[in-house]
Structure prediction request, 484 residues.
Amino acid sequence: MQDQIKQQIERLRSQGATYVDARWYPFEESNQLLMWNGNLKNASFSRESGIGIRVLYKGAWGFSASSDLGGLSGLFDRAFENARVAAERVTFPVRLAEKDAIQAKFESPCQINPFEIPLADKVAFLKEMDGRLDQKGVFQRVSSLTFIRKQIVFLDSEGSQIEKLITEVFASLEVNGLDEHGESFERKFRLDRRGESRGWESLDRPFFAENAERIVRELNQVLTSDQCPRDERSVILLPGIMYLQTHETIGHALELDRILGYELAYAGGSFVTLDDFGKLRYGSEKLTARADATLANSPGSFGFDDDGVPAQNNLLIDRGILVGAITGRQMVEEANAIAHRSIFSGSGGTDRATAFYRVPIERMTNINIDPGRDGTLEDIISQTAQGILLDGDRSWSIGSNREQFHFGTEIGWLVEDGKLTKPVKNSTYKGDTLKFWNSLSAVGDSSTWQVKYVDNCGKGQPNQVMQLGHGVPVCRFDNVRIGE
Ligand SMILES: [Zn+2]
Prediction:
């Protein structure tokens, strides 16, 4: 198969195509299970295979994809024909940043293939967790498992040949309860990075049992708590909400295609402009953020992107100053041309497609915040005069250019004179992105740093759902509006 694909790539090159690549998925499997109040509501399995072909001709892309590999040469011709038609309407000719031709293999770490585990064992796991969640105060309980396994073979006209085998496991537990007024509250647990691999072995029963107990206990705390006060104070974000703050107001804001306006029609733009790189004070000096696709064992680490560019660890914000973006081969060239200066020295290796029948676009890898020097969570709490400790994403609302935000969290605990006092319900906070990050006053050390997984980041038209990660420490921000 690979030889046939190579022949087709060479054929289109000889016919005048500037660049050709193909992503062949020998298989992609997905398996989802969901248990709701003890009943198995979903146990679905899907398997697909196919190929996606991109052709660049006179500055325009053409694309074709099919699950039928029988008519391979017709499929390549169709991609080329699409590029020819598009080339008649080009407003900004596509150029691709240089890259090396690579022959390589990548496998995400997995000890036990979850697709070899019998369905009965998966259901037994959910049943056990459901039983642990079935306690006083809980009126609705949801446990879910998602498994993905895919093989991708990438070939291009520049001599690259890359094979990837990726296995993902996502798991979550959720409990809902009603307070005395009948208002509903929730508390969730999601499996995040633990240990060295994420096959079936990452479903560690004692660890899940411990967290099931915790979320039930914390839900009951919320149900009997007072309302979150409405005032201005310090907020201390645990990784369970810090990841979303980072995702929405650093990650999405720094996707280069969004900065160039490509997402405007769908999920909005970015307040960041090309002029800002190298000088915008994004946050306080305590803020260093990076796009690190080299982090071991995370859905945001995939070896090579779908342009065939190796995974990288790039700074986005260096001690508060904006220095980088989430980039791929095409957008860095376009951005440099528009800015009339070389802002980006090459692709950051972040182009990914959600399936063989979608084109790669810039996606978050692991968008991380470096641990800081302000000690443990206890140290940060003890040095906070008046604050609130927040965890768990409950609601989010973001300005169309990521310039403001409002988040509701599952739980909050008030901090008075350096001590945690009591839990509160309906805890929320809001802010202006730059003002907020500039109010960052404490960053926890590596003991507070966790890698959170995201399995449902949406972007692009048609929509592409992507998996990624966020390594984040506990962080404190000052003078933040809460409770409104
Ligand atoms: Zn997202």
Residues 247, 252, 457 surround zinc ion (CB under 6 Å). The mean pLDDT is 97.
